[in-house]
Design a protein that fits this description.
Blueprint: E1 5-9, H1 13-25, E2 30-35, H2 63-81, H3 86-89, E3 91-100, E4 114-117, H4 120-125, E5 132-141, H5 143-156, E6 160-163, E7 178-181, H6 187-190, E8 197-207, E9 214-217, E10 222-225, E11 230-233, E12 237-238, H7 247-260, E13 267-291, E14 294-304, H8 308-330
Length: 336
């Protein structure tokens, strides 16, 4: 009997993590990534990369499931950060501040390196007008380096890729035993899911190597230093499909970030805008899709919105288990 054939649709960070996890769980399977955009062309490439999964943007998912996704991702990222290749893979610890006017109790606080409330004296020294804040040491995941690492792992394990634009998953009937749909925003049209909607984001990348700590607030302002640049953000425009750079948004980002650190008005390296693929709830489930040309066993894994990087490994672990369970039922005698 031939090895099972798994297709993964989408080459963003969720698609890559899912493909690598499928390879690890099913080492004899043939795994192929099908996507029209790779690497720098993906939405994932524009993410800030700060590990702080936000439960308020993951509605409709059971708390225990969110905990598992977050824990699996944190443990994996920390393993990379502790390795000799952390810089090459773009995953490393960083300290910084969350500033706001209310108290929070995020689920991820027990998973990061440290998390504590700032004193009034510390807030005053920071020169902030916020009444509350936290000092946090967490992880930075640089999307471009991290995705390059994942693709290298995928190819090293025998994975193949196809640069191809799909208009329906029916095009894959008969080609794969299971297809994992990690198409993000494209799922709105690819599987006719109206629950997927864009949350437009815009960022500015600057050259400011003197900034060593991150700051993010609840007022759509964040500053995230990385290996080669500093990311300034951002905006959250719901149901806005435009990926054009808007000067008004750009100036607003600069002004909000300059109130936190005045020296961010530095050399601009790049402007970027993209669409976070949001869905309430995140869709991570199986479906036997029926088409005129035949049935297709599908595992959906999309709709993570702004939590895509933070949850990527954890949802990849979950999706790969669903693939294995699907195959165990449909091909009980196959070599998994």
């Amino acid at each position: 009997m031939l090895p099972v054939r798994i297709g993964v649709v989408g080459a963003g960070v969720v698609g890559l993590c899912t493909a690598v996890n499928v390879q690890q769980l099913l080492p004899h399977a043939w795994v192929t990534i099908i996507a029209d955009n790779f690497s720098e062309e993906t939405t994932s490439d524009g993410a800030g990369g700060l590990f702080r999964p936000t439960a308020e943007f993951i509605k409709g998912v059971p708390p225990d499931t969110i905990k598992q996704w977050t824990r699996d991702s944190a443990e994996y990222f920390m393993k990379i950060a502790a390795s000799a290749d952390a810089g090459k893979f773009g995953v490393f610890p960083m300290s910084g501040y969350h500033l706001l006017n209310r108290e929070v109790n995020p689920e991820y606080k027990s998973l990061v390196y440290s998390f504590r409330q700032l004193t009034p004296e510390e807030l005053q020294k920071l020169g902030t007008t916020y009444s509350n804040g936290y000092a946090i040491t967490t992880l930075i995941v640089e999307p471009r380096k991290y995705m390059a690492f994942l693709m290298t792992e995928f190819r090293k394990n025998g994975g193949q890729s196809q640069k191809r634009t799909l208009h329906s998953l029916e095009e894959l009937v008969g080609q794969f035993d299971v297809v994992v749909n990690c198409s993000g925003m494209r799922s709105r049209w690819l599987v006719n899911d109206p629950l997927v909607y864009p949350v437009r984001g815009q960022i500015i990348k600057i050259n400011a190597p003197w900034i060593k700590s991150f700051i993010y607030t609840d007022d759509d302002a964040y500053i995230i230093p990385r290996g080669e640049d500093v990311v300034l953000g951002g905006v959250r425009h719901t149901n806005d499909f435009s990926t054009e750079i808007r000067e008004q948004d750009k100036q607003g980002i600069l002004d909000r970030c300059a109130r936190l650190i005045p020296s961010v008005k530095a050399e601009i390296v790049k402007d970027w805008a993209g669409l976070r693929p949001h869905r309430d709830p995140v869709r991570l489930e199986t479906e036997n899709m029926k088409f005129k040309s035949g049935d297709l066993q599908v595992v959906h894994n999309y709709g993570h919105g702004g939590n895509g990087i933070a949850l990527s490994w954890g949802v990849g672990v979950h999706a790969s288990k669903l693939v294995k369970d699907y195959l165990a039922k449909s091909r009980p005698m196959s070599r998994l």
